[in-house]
Design goal:
Radius of gyration: 15 Å
Shape: globular
Largest sheet: 5 strands, mixed
Oligomer: single chain
Number of helices: 3
Structural class: alpha+beta
Helix content: 25-40%
Distance between the termini: 20 Å
Number of domains: 1
Number of strands: 7
Strand content: 25-35%
CATH class: Alpha Beta
Length: about 150
Amino acid sequence: MSRIEDRLNDLGLSLPAAPAPAANYVPYVRTGNQLFVSGQISSGPDGLITGTLGDTLDVEQGAQAARSCALSLMAQAKAALGDLDKVTRVVKLVAFVNSTATFTEQPKVVNGASDLMVEVFGDAGRHARSAVSAPSLPMGVAVEIEAIFEVAT
């Protein structure tokens, strides 16, 4: 087992199966030493995590939804690379939060994903990021996040 997967186990986490694309796109593209992972939507053992921040979900529930997206991003990276130890840096996360027009705590929601990346990858998990509001997301999910990873060549 890889060092990163050992770390996930230490945290009591396991990666989900890498989700299949829901439309006409690929789940990831590797070019040179960068891996671009398509947006991963919030889901858990009971299915999709749906709802609107500022209405049906609070910040903590949103952070858990973002954390689930981070696990799916890692699952896609593992599918692409075969081993998460090949990730040398989490470069950037771009996050979309299904929220009301008056909800302004998108950064706190996305911390669910950012914090997990640092917990798992250490300093290599520190990344640039965007956390923006969206009036709706596919299938009513609470959060969608895409990622750019630097990888060993």
